[in-house]
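task queued by scheduler; priority normal; single chain, no ligands, no partner chains; default sampling; output format set to structure tokens
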Amino acid sequence: MSAKHIATPTPPLTPALCFNTGYLRDFLRISRAQLDDTISTNLNSLITPSLTRPFDPSSTVDPSTNRQGRQPIAQETCADFTHQTVFPIWSSRSQVLSYCSIVATSPDPDDPDRTRIEAENMAQSHRVVDERLDPYSGRFFPKEPRTEMLASVLRNENAVENIVRDRTWRIMNERCNGLDPSQKGWQDAFRSWDNEKKRS
């Protein structure tokens, strides 16, 4: 499959998506697997095999030469791939992470465990503890509200996202001629693309 045909549709942005952290993680994992984890393969698919270049027997002697994986990719081809595939997929993940971050920091009156958590906290506040008789009696591990659990998941996923994008951008710069001449990194390039998209 050509890299240009990769598609990762953004799921409907609802609190249910965010609080279903298993599904949320699966969406992010599958999206990264389709693009970032296989970025070298995706870039190789952009190379059109030459029909005019004759076979060079020396290429079988030194595997580091004349390999498709080592061929530079035209700047225009890389730019199209970046703007039509890479950034839209990154944008899809960014939308989900940003939306869920808002959910994680908003009041959550629909939390099904809210009443039980409040009751446990109230009971704990009125409990008389004598650690001389039982040194473990003072230990209390309240259940986290689901917003706090979601916030923890998002912290981990955002850290993974930055690592993955750094790696993808590095590989693309190695393979593409003039992809990032300013060397400012993917953050500035992605922000510029996103601002341009919003203006159009």
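post-processing summary
- Residues 16-46+71-105+143-200 form one domain.
- The CA atoms of residues 4 and 80 lie 9 Å apart.
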